[in-house]
């Protein structure tokens, strides 16, 4: 098997994540789709690291994971605070920036 | 070991190929499941499966440290956080199928397909036939190699990452912090409110009939022998798990009477009747209440008139 298949898998997962962001309406599921896209890009980075024979790609993937963790913490906090005031987790219902 | 072998050679071994095809099916299936499941909990579980599959893919490609971090951070921490918020926001909340924009879903699927085709065509056209492999980079082990890079070339990014994490933690705390709009009621105010509302002022009656039972699901008996529903906690009351023992004593007495009658050989006609269920207290008929009120009302003006005279 050619390791390029990992890149195809990554592209497929990224596409599914991107379609999910466009299709789904639940804010939590949207966040999961964003996480899936980050994971897919991580897989691509790891594969490129193997392609080039250096560890830099893995380092960038590592930083992506850290940033994803920070992003999820803040994003879920925003979802929870919006849910408290509007009693809905649907992105269609949030049409105002203020609570 | 498959992982080492795969990392050493540019092309993969048969073992890695088999593992890849199995995991790719799991990963894509999980991703599609996440996309298509209507309930957020199911989506989260599908995503966890995808992430686990990806973690094994990392390990197979020589990124052992990243694979472990993926399991610990993603499936451990992040998915736990997701599930926590899903439970907080409402497990039963489902996506509405109503479209705000007409044809948006169809257009989104079309865009996704086009994007995927473009992306995959781009990869297919790229010249990616030579894989160096990580056997040199991982010569002293994956973790020491990563550590060497993180603490030399990428040390600035690493430090900034620390700042980012602290900012995120503080941001989450600020966002979910709730200010009290008004001061919470003190115990004194609550007591005054209870007197004002004229609800149950003394403590609620304790459950249990102390002569025989004192379990919490057995209501206390009022002086007339009926049960005091207040004495059983709200949860049991709503479940209908109240054990009424108000008749137990009477039934036991009836049994004793029967045994005695058997012993004495009394005919059945002379036996006292077995006590049936006690009649509940009859409420005062509504008519009487009205009559009494009417009588009172009729009486009061009369008194006033007398006083006036």
TrEMBL record, chain A:
This is NADH-quinone oxidoreductase subunit K. NDH-1 shuttles electrons from NADH, via FMN and iron-sulfur (Fe-S) centers, to quinones in the respiratory chain. The immediate electron acceptor for the enzyme in this species is believed to be a menaquinone. Couples the redox reaction to proton translocation (for every two electrons transferred, four hydrogen ions are translocated across the cytoplasmic membrane), and thus conserves the redox energy in a proton gradient. Belongs to the complex I subunit 4L family. Keywords: Cell membrane, Membrane, NAD, Oxidoreductase, Quinone, Translocase, Transmembrane, Transmembrane helix, Transport. It is found in: Cell membrane; Membrane. The chain crosses the membrane at residues 6-23, 28-48, 60-83. PANTHER family: NADH DEHYDROGENASE SUBUNIT 4L-RELATED, NADH-UBIQUINONE OXIDOREDUCTASE SUBUNIT ND4L. It is a multi-pass membrane protein. HAMAP family: NDH1_NuoK (MF_01456). Its main location: membrane. Its EC number is 7.1.1.-. The gene is nuoK. NDH-1 is composed of 14 different subunits. Subunits NuoA, H, J, K, L, M, N constitute the membrane sector of the complex. The lineage of its organism: Bacteria, Bacillati, Actinomycetota, Actinomycetes, Kitasatosporales. It catalyses: a quinone + NADH + 5 H(+)(in) = a quinol + NAD(+) + 4 H(+)(out). One of its GO terms (molecular function) is NADH dehydrogenase (quinone) (non-electrogenic) activity. InterPro entries: NADH_UbQ_OxRdtase_chain4L/K, NUOK/Mnh_C1-like. Gene3D superfamilies: 1.10.287.3510. The keyword Cytoplasm does not apply.
């Amino acid at each position: 098997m050619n390791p390029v298949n990992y890149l195809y898998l990554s592209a497929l997962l990224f596409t599914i994540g991107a379609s999910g962001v466009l299709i789904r309406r639940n804010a939590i599921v949207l966040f999961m789709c964003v996480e899936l896209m980050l994971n897919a890009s991580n897989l691509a980075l790891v594969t490129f690291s193997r392609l080039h024979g250096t560890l830099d790609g893995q380092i960038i993937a590592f930083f992506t994971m850290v940033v994803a963790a920070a992003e999820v913490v803040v994003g879920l906090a925003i979802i929870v605070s919006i849910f408290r005031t509007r009693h809905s987790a649907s992105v269609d219902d949030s049409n105002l920036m203020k609570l | 070991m498959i992982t080492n072998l795969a990392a050493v050679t540019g092309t993969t071994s048969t073992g890695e190929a088999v593992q890849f095809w199995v995991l790719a099916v799991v990963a894509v299936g999980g991703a599609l499941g996440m996309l298509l499941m209507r309930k957020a909990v199911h989506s989260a579980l599908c995503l966890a499966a995808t992430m686990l599959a990806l973690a094994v893919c990392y390990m197979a490609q020589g990124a052992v440290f990243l694979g472990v971090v993926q399991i610990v951070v993603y499936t451990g921490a992040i998915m736990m956080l997701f599930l926590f918020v899903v439970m907080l926001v409402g497990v039963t909340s489902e996506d509405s199928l109503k479209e705000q924009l007409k044809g948006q879903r169809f257009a989104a699927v079309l865009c996704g397909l086009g994007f995927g085709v473009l992306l995959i065509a781009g990869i297919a056209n790229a010249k990616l036939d030579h894989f160096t492999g990580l056997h040199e980079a991982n010569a002293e082990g994956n973790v020491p190699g990563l550590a060497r890079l993180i603490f030399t070339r990428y040390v600035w990014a690493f430090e900034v990452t620390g700042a980012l994490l602290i900012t995120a933690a503080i941001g989450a705390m600020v966002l979910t912090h709730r200010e009290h709009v008004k001061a919470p009621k003190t115990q004194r105010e609550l007591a005054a409110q209870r007197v004002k509302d004229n609800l149950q002022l003394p403590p609620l009656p304790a459950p249990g009939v102390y002569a025989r039972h004192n379990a919490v699901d057995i209501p206390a008996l009022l002086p007339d022998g009926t049960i005091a529903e207040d004495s059983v906690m709200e949860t049991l009351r709503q479940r209908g798990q109240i054990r009424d023992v108000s008749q137990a004593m009477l039934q036991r007495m009836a049994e004793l009477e029967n045994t005695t009658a058997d012993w004495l050989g009394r005919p059945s006609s002379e036996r006292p009747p077995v006590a049936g269920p006690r009649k509940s207290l009859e409420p005062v008929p509504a008519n009487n209440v009205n009559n009494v009120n009417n009588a009172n009302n009729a009486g009061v003006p009369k008194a006033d008139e007398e006083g006036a005279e």
